[in-house]
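Minutes, project check-in
Item: structure for the 282-residue chain
Input as provided by the requester:
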Amino acid sequence: MSGGPLVSVEALAPALARGVVLVDCRFSLADAGAGERAWREAHLPGAVHADLDRDLSDHRQPAALGRHPLPAAGDFCARLARWGISPDTEVVAYDAGDGAMAAARFWWLMRLLGHARVAVLDGGLAAWTAQGLPLESKLPSPAPARYEGAFDLRQVVGTDEVLARLSGSPGWLVDARAGERFRGEVEPLDPVAGHIPGAVNRPYTANLAQGRFKPAEVLAAEFGELLAGRSPETLVLSCGSGVTACHHALAMAQAGLPGARLYAPSWSGWTSDRGRPVATGA
């Protein structure tokens, strides 16, 4: 495979014979159990399942850390080991289609560990089945591996830093939610509608065309406009709970613009304190 953050169906299919570990990350916010049920019914050959709530989040954490708080690195490494993943394993994550629920989150957590050989299947299960490639219902029994590591928390932004940057020029914070949620017209998940002052809106769906990521050069041009001459390291990514913001991190890596950091608590963590400022409108 190419070694980039995305892999095509055409490149993945022949690579399965050399021991690539597949991780099915399908998840639905409307039905938390739907992703695992779908995996049990049919999945790419040998794929294990990573559940957003159980495996990619730690709900023991306080509300200030958002609806999907980051898992502890030790817990996440233990899960990787049970799935047969070690630090040198080649791993490909996929979900139902566009990577947002929650293959990009898995990819980003792996990159926090410094795991280099990880990618997301562009187009996910939908792209795989569109090519007529096989699925299976047999549940895998991977041989346990060993994984020890720590998250590079320099890539994660806390609320204190966001508060400190509120007086800066707008545009340093990019919100990946749908436009109507950003503007505060609707809010189906969190107690307050709107966005963090100074944020700009780029819905994660802007990274896609017909269910696949846009070409790298197109993504580079579009994120280049957002950066307006700034370094990618100055950008902070946010969303509702730190999940779809990972889609922007993946898209920027594909565009050759790595380095943006994630405000992991995102809007759900921000609004856990009703005294924090809220903006509405475009």
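Outcome recorded: The chain is about 30% helix and 10% strand.
No further action items on this chain.
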